[in-house]
Amino acid sequence: MSSMVVKLVPLEVGFLRKHEVKRLNPRQGSGCVLSVRASVASKTLEYPKTNREQLDKDVRIGVLGASGYTGAEIVRLLANHPHFGITLMTADRKAGQSFGSVFPHLFTQDLPDMVAVKDADFSSVDAVFCCLPHGTTQEIIKGLPKGLKVVDLSADFRLRNINEYEEWYGQPHKAPELQKEAVYGLTEVLRYEIQNARLVANPGCYPTSIQLPLVPLIKAHLIETKNIIIDAKSGVSGAGRGAKEANLYTEIAEGLHSYGITKHRHVPEIEQGLSDASNSEVTVSFTPHLMPMSRGMQSTIYVEMAPGVNVNDLYDYLNSTYQDEEFVRLLEKGVVPHTQHVRGSNYCLMNVFQDRILGRAIIISVIDNLVKGASGQALQNLNLMMGYPENTGLQYQPLFP
Amino acid sequence: MSSMVVKLVPLEVGFLRKHEVKRLNPRQGSGCVLSVRASVASKTLEYPKTNREQLDKDVRIGVLGASGYTGAEIVRLLANHPHFGITLMTADRKAGQSFGSVFPHLFTQDLPDMVAVKDADFSSVDAVFCCLPHGTTQEIIKGLPKGLKVVDLSADFRLRNINEYEEWYGQPHKAPELQKEAVYGLTEVLRYEIQNARLVANPGCYPTSIQLPLVPLIKAHLIETKNIIIDAKSGVSGAGRGAKEANLYTEIAEGLHSYGITKHRHVPEIEQGLSDASNSEVTVSFTPHLMPMSRGMQSTIYVEMAPGVNVNDLYDYLNSTYQDEEFVRLLEKGVVPHTQHVRGSNYCLMNVFQDRILGRAIIISVIDNLVKGASGQALQNLNLMMGYPENTGLQYQPLFP
Amino acid sequence: MSSMVVKLVPLEVGFLRKHEVKRLNPRQGSGCVLSVRASVASKTLEYPKTNREQLDKDVRIGVLGASGYTGAEIVRLLANHPHFGITLMTADRKAGQSFGSVFPHLFTQDLPDMVAVKDADFSSVDAVFCCLPHGTTQEIIKGLPKGLKVVDLSADFRLRNINEYEEWYGQPHKAPELQKEAVYGLTEVLRYEIQNARLVANPGCYPTSIQLPLVPLIKAHLIETKNIIIDAKSGVSGAGRGAKEANLYTEIAEGLHSYGITKHRHVPEIEQGLSDASNSEVTVSFTPHLMPMSRGMQSTIYVEMAPGVNVNDLYDYLNSTYQDEEFVRLLEKGVVPHTQHVRGSNYCLMNVFQDRILGRAIIISVIDNLVKGASGQALQNLNLMMGYPENTGLQYQPLFP
Amino acid sequence: MSSMVVKLVPLEVGFLRKHEVKRLNPRQGSGCVLSVRASVASKTLEYPKTNREQLDKDVRIGVLGASGYTGAEIVRLLANHPHFGITLMTADRKAGQSFGSVFPHLFTQDLPDMVAVKDADFSSVDAVFCCLPHGTTQEIIKGLPKGLKVVDLSADFRLRNINEYEEWYGQPHKAPELQKEAVYGLTEVLRYEIQNARLVANPGCYPTSIQLPLVPLIKAHLIETKNIIIDAKSGVSGAGRGAKEANLYTEIAEGLHSYGITKHRHVPEIEQGLSDASNSEVTVSFTPHLMPMSRGMQSTIYVEMAPGVNVNDLYDYLNSTYQDEEFVRLLEKGVVPHTQHVRGSNYCLMNVFQDRILGRAIIISVIDNLVKGASGQALQNLNLMMGYPENTGLQYQPLFP
Q1: Which catalytic residues are annotated (chains A, B, C, D) (predicted)?
Q2: B395 in a domain, yes or no?
Q3: H or E segment at C349?
Q4: Is residue B41 scored above 80 in pLDDT?
């Protein structure tokens, strides 16, 4: 049919096909990462795949638990990564399906079909992103070849204290030996350790947004560690893609509510990080709120400053800490961070404000919970672990509006 | 044309007209307010107006500044009010227009066209809702006939201290005599004074959601008044209908941000109310956040309990305070208030939670900012001022989803 | 604790309780429906329920399948109904639970706990709203006492042709005898039949929005019945409260898509209604779209006018048809219906526009899919069936913004 | 591989590789790990700018009217473009301001401050994107140096017939000579002409989504050109960033409506394109709808197929037309395009469906109105005009959820 129609109704000159244009193109193949695929595509006549050369990349990547939002976000970020190519994807309940059938927005990517994790051939990969639910992750990672680099996006290796893990997650830790090896992946804080790690426990979204401003201020003894009050707001994608009544559009749109008051599982992770920074036990007030939006997270943090410290001291110290960072940015004085301004990007924007109550300050930090709060930071970490510049593949600017 | 077509194409039997049905109706006109219009409509053949008998109501109402969202909300609430009928509407920039052309969702209501406030005939009204912007309101109310009952939804009469007014609003108070007369309209707290008032300053939305839980707890000395930290979240309708870039759909959807940090004009109103309750000067930390939703407001309030007091004491005292109230409701222990659960209604839902930090509690209250936070409470107040049950016309259940 | 605190910390004068106010109230109990509860409440000291006098109402109502959105909407609408009181609620999977635990926004209503339908005592009710899924409804209604009035919101009795039912729903009709008795509940079109019906098949949301404008125009031979093209848009609540991945907030927000192209089960219902009107078999093009909103439905209908007919003829005829209707409204010429302008109300707004293509017209109608498209029209029908004015309890104005 | 790339594409000194960084950077923080920008920053100690080497890029770009959404989108897309660097930005009302103050989400970009267009130095640029409002654009482009390549995103050069321009835009065309030179920038249809153009009139968003499927089908005589009915749905960003009451969050959220019925200014552009394709005058029915979402556009197109043609013929022909295209994609049979699946990307997804009415088909196409519908296609065109692969800088995958 197709050829018949082409004969009967020849295309106008104006309807030049892409591969014909390519031959006319004097500057073709100019070597930039983003244009490589065009020249590949111009050599073939089959349906073009934007990312077909996965197998030719330097580092072969596996994505375990690829059928959730963090898995999809890994794929989106790697689409323009010059060195990492996905060669393995697992998803137990969707085994045998193409990734594009599960996430149609990425159907143009040339990816392996998903397999059950028990059927995965790990000899084909150099590193894995593990996007599995907590609880099952410890055993799976324990079973992986020891040579693999692993970034685990679950909570299973974030808590050093395995008793605390059991307390908050309701089951004993199943890989205590690995736990000792795991490095906590808060990139800007533990960059050196991450560079040398084999297994990185990627931080939770709330803990990332909270520790990035608080850890340096606590280390520098600029704020008190008692009565730290964190009012956090998150988009719904943090809850994942599981079908739950509570996360239906109709239940979420045009309204908000607190949840997990005092009981959210990110509490011990936050307190571990802040306790490390202060060399003392820190207990925080942490109240998350579910927002009518898909992506984005803000932590509004109410703190008491140390005696003699003022808000300019906090500002200056955060500035000195982060002035060379690409992804963690202190805004100009008085400028309020908006979650819209980081959507789809790996940035963490923050600022600090004088409170009306003497001696108190308000710290605000925003991230995209799926990027800096999950898959973006995971990629940042794996870049480091594999010896690449940590921003490789991560320089997406925020999508607004 | 219409009659011609009817002749040419007679209606089937099944296409019985409403007024014909009425005659068949054995229980017609059973006296309830909600069915009055049907029987009226059945006697006429003109285009039916749901609320045509405004002039026959007991109390003639004027709405000043009717072209904003709080004005529209007054109209919506009065649509089923058995005693209040709107006989005057003003809107300077929309003078001469019909209300239905400005708010098409209310076009079925039989209302007077809008006039400029300077052209208004106040002899035709018994009471007014004043929905004008702050700053202009004092002079206009000063010019009204003294016999009129007034509920002012602006901020112009909320602050007893006229110096404080000048400090926060940047201009001298223009009606200091009236200020002395004005009663603050937080219904459940000042019900008796409101009943006997002529001029009521209707509270702001944030102050309503904050004072309803805090005032009784402070009066009862159950919480400390230092370090009260309020993280408040509001829908966009609170910003009104003015065309501002910052409130465009594209700027608001799928994101959130803090605003007016330490400088929001509701601060002195909140502090006035809490200071009254404690008989001492209270300074609060108050940080409002703009949410991607049209209606709804939550205040998440972090407090320190008085020595020896625990969270059950707070719960029990709020319960004893509000157990007979129709609109202010303490939820069952552990149940989290959602803003969706008050949308379109005059309810304030609240609850109190133990914090992780010893001695602290978290109080959450939610309202619809346009109803209990504005027009609903205004109507509740005018009901009282005119001697009607305060819930008259206000028993709309929340619209969810 | 409560009484102790009251003793220890006496309330200020300003903190007058509601029941005290009532005694001061000179106009109390003026007999209006909306204020009845206030006077009841004033006599009791227990926790007030807005709608406690269900048992005293004239008509005892059962709601079968009360745990879905249409069930909740029935409860919302009946909250202010002067004659209908809910005395039975069923929900098989939530049997034993209170309605307020399933729909917290209605927790103030005094309602019976939900029971399994098999345990329901139908001797306690005069009429039922049946909000069950299609497929199970026929047998349940077949088993009800014959004296009960029934409005069925499912699709199970909408198609007169039981073969067509089997074809579209994939199972044989289980109550063909009842099918003969069932009256299709498109109120404005079949008002007389509905008044005399025992079992009403309440129309689907799409069919309601489409038939209200098209049926009269087809009956009057003003439009052609071939090539009627309907592009319909619906909010997500039409999909119900079941937990489905496709209806998660994250999947729906900020995007739209067509679904059920040519295969939506409302097709045979629409075609049945239009075929009846034209006395010939009508096939339509019907493409529904899922919108990022909870409530609201628009049908944009592209039609060819009959020879010699122009758009003014359509306008005039719709005007003559609906000018006496309370809920179906033809807007002024040129005014575009918005779904926001019917949210929460029982209105259907419509208008008709000249197309650019000669001889064609564009008809737009909007409804709230949960009110006029479901529970509102169901109540309108039961009002008629029970001999009350059909607008009883339905005069809610739209909620905007 | 890494060293090979270094040979083929020599890195700047600033492009320190990760393994070098490690040696230089024994602990964290001070040095920086972040490719070009970071290492530059580490030498200067200034605040790091992600894209500071604009001046070193091959092609110097001006953005006229940079303060609107399409201007911001150009900046976002160019952030990772290897050859285009922005050296001039104009915005008359925001002259003197930094771009980051107007669009904080792009504050990390190193961009020139905005100037008034009259003060712009065009000797510093090789090409411009013109994002000005229609009406003012013709004169400004007329005044530009003749050597500049221009992609105009306004409507000012889209209509070849200047009388038609005057009729729809209410003012005479001010640059009729330039109009003759302008090439219509529908890339996949007019690629060859665009490659050789100096002035490209970038298509409107609706016309892009409509012509991409219809032009080839009309050229191939597979569909009738009479009675083409287009029901189009757009996100709000298409209305721009101007402060208008109608586009406030509160007016748009949770609702939809038709607008510009038969009168939308994209009508003559659509009809011009379809008339060209058919060599006859085509009149379409076009009804746009405003959706509660920021980005995204769907055109649902109802067509009559030519005699003897079936829906598989349409599918096969679209497949043969677009199978080599990177950005225009025909989905697998039966798969429905969603606007969410193109958000933030330059893709146009389409598919074709059999209608219920014999001989008719339904065509659906979706784009992101700000990318393929505006700035993305503009960049695609300028890539071609400057001799680069057309996908350069455009390979962003869609952002979902």
Answers
A1: 205
A2: no
A3: strand C348-354
A4: no
